[in-house]
Amino acid sequence: MTPQQATSYRQQLLDMRTALLGQLAGQRGGVLGQAEAAAQHFERREDSSAQVATERELEFAIGERETHELAMIEAALTRIDAGSYGKCTSCGGAIPESRLQASPEAMRCIACQEKFEQQRHAG
Questions:
Q1: What is the per-residue pLDDT across 43-98, written as a single tens digit (0 to 9) for each?
Q2: Burial letters 32-70, b for 16+ CB under 10 A, else e
Q3: CA-CA distances (angstroms) from residue 43 to 49, 89, 95?
Q4: Do the beta carbons of residue 12 and residue 104 sit within 8 Å?
Q5: Which residues pair with 94 in a beta bridge?
Q6: How far apart are CA 120 and CA 114, in angstroms?
Q7: DSSP assignment of the chain
């Protein structure tokens, strides 16, 4: 990977991280944390306990997914700094440019990602 390509992917990843952090802040009422946002649901007396529990579970599930996305972005930025970006973390082969363009945070080539997902679902 050329330095220009790495710089381009770094900027794309930084933009993704900024957008995701902004989305998280907006969902949580700005600077509210996940616990504070969930606590606000308990303050609304008009909501049923089932509705409050469902909303809280949804918020935590969304938070977990977004936390995972942030971790993937941070890991990709670390690989850029280490000079290993664009190499599959499983087999060491090159990740196709088309895959990186579609998912700049990708850490595995398509074949290794498919194996990883099969193993994860089987176990």
A1: 555 556 666 566 666 565 566 788 899 999 999 999 999 999 999 999 999 999 99
A2: eebeebbeeeeeeeeeeeeebeebbeebeeebeebeebb
A3: 11, 46, 49
A4: yes
A5: 87
A6: 10
A7: --HHHHHHHHHHHHHHHHHHHHHHHHHTTSS--HHHHHHHHHH-TTS-HHHHHHHHHHHHHHHHHHHHHHHHHHHHHHHHHHT-TTB-TTT-PBPPHHHHHH-TT--S-HHHHHHHHHHHHH-
Report the mean per-residue pLDDT for the chain: 82
Contacts of 15 by beta carbon, 8 Å cutoff, 6+ apart: none
Give the type of residue at 84.
S
Residue 120 near residue 68, CB atoms below 8 Å? no
Q: Using CA atoms, how far apart are residues 49 and 59, in angstroms rounded to an integer?
A: 15
**Contacts with 52 (C-beta within 8 Å, 6 or more apart), sequence order:** 41, 42, 44
